[in-house]
Specification:
With 317 residues, the chain is α+β, with helices and mostly antiparallel strands. The protein folds into three domains: 59 residues, Roll (Structural Genomics Hypothetical 15.5 Kd Protein In mrcA-pckA Intergenic Region, Chain A), CATH 3.10.290; 93 residues, Pseudouridine synthase (2-Layer Sandwich); 145 residues, Pseudouridine synthase, CATH 3.30.2350.10. The protein is built from seven helices and 17 strands. α2 packs across α4. The protein is globular.
Length: 317
């Protein structure tokens, strides 16, 4: 807690929003403070709060700003990056399956963060420690579009946009079953599994989560879905689609062996697909420094195209 700051709210400050209050006290950008609050680095009377919470006279506020990022000792690594969009402030990449976004348990090399440091060394001082430039995540085996900040201004703007749900995130997936309706919304809170803490589940006391879906095509017992994430909870798509009876093909955690009930000729490509059949297809947002609209599309990966063709005999339209 050596970096922590503590103070009491004065009568004159009473009624201020927490993010505005802390920004004024510490002389920091409001977007940056908002990120700290969402990361639970700011507390009122020892309890976390929302950026919009109004402070009251006499309350004790504590803020522990993160240490300045030095890339946490990460060593830059050369490697292939597929760039979908870039400018001086940010870059959007097409992440392959099997690549972690940043180091974690059992992964201390070969992550996207390592490759980014080699290609864009300026991001070493951007964002959180150990996660240079990273403003959002994709699961290990999810492919597709990932936005990365190259400057502190872009980092603050993008993190705020994601937090405020101003970024449109569109995914595509292949899942089991045929939906009753071509389109719909899943509004179901998501939280940690009560007994398996590494998993997520729909639960009444979870965090609000909303997924819009549209069925693009159905054949041979499977369907292609287009999905719009209004929130960004851990494993949200996988949990939500399972909850409405459409688990993802290839999902080792939330999937089901429904291939066993399908004709023998289509069982093998479904049984052997090595990852959750999920792709982050499009990102759309206002540029964090210019305000211009940025819309980026990551091509449908070959493995999803082959899966669909091998099972249904149809091309991915």
């Amino acid at each position: 807690m050596s970096n922590a700051r503590r103070w009491s709210v004065t009568q004159e400050e009473a009624g201020e929003r927490l993010d505005r209050h802390v920004a004024g006290r510490l002389g920091k950008p409001r977007n940056q403070v908002r990120k700290w609050i969402l990361d639970e680095l700011v507390k009122i009377e020892g309890r976390t709060a929302k950026p919009s919470t109004e402070v009251r006279a006499g309350e004790n506020v504590e803020c522990e700003p993160p240490e300045p990022n030095t890339a946490a000792g990460l060593e830059p690594e050369a490697g292939q990056l597929t760039v979908l969009y870039q400018d001086a402030e940010l870059v959007v990449l097409d992440k392959p399956a099997g690549m972690a976004i940043h180091p974690g348990a059992g992964r201390d090399r070969g992550t996207l963060a390592h490759l980014l440091l080699h290609a864009y060394p300026e991001i070493a001082a951007v964002g959180g420690a150990g996660r240079p430039g990273i403003v959002h995540r994709l699961d290990l085996d999810t492919t597709g579009a990932v936005a990365v900040a190259r400057s502190e201004a872009a980092y603050l703007g993008l993190t705020a946009a994601f937090a405020e749900r101003l970024v449109r995130k569109t995914y595509v997936t292949v899942a089991y079953g045929v939906p009753r309706a071509d389109r719909g919304r899943v509004e179901a809170p998501v939280g940690r599994h009560r007994h398996q803490r590494k998993l997520m589940q729909v639960r009444a006391d979870g965090r609000p989560a909303v997924t819009g879906y549209r069925c693009l095509e159905s054949a041979a017992g499977i369907s292609r879905f287009e999905l719009d994430l209004e929130t960004g909870r851990t494993h949200q798509i996988r949990v939500h689609l399972k909850s409405i009876g459409h688990p993802l093909v290839g999902d080792p955690t939330y999937g089901e062996a429904r291939w066993k009930g399908l004709p023998r000729g289509v069982q093998k490509p479904l049984r052997t697909f090595p990852r959750p059949a999920l792709h982050a297809w499009r990102l759309a947002f206002d540029h964090p420094t210019t305000g211009a609209r940025v819309e980026v599309e990551a091509p449908i990966p070959d493995d999803l195209r082959r899966l669909w063709h091998d099972v249904t005999g149809r091309d991915w339209a």
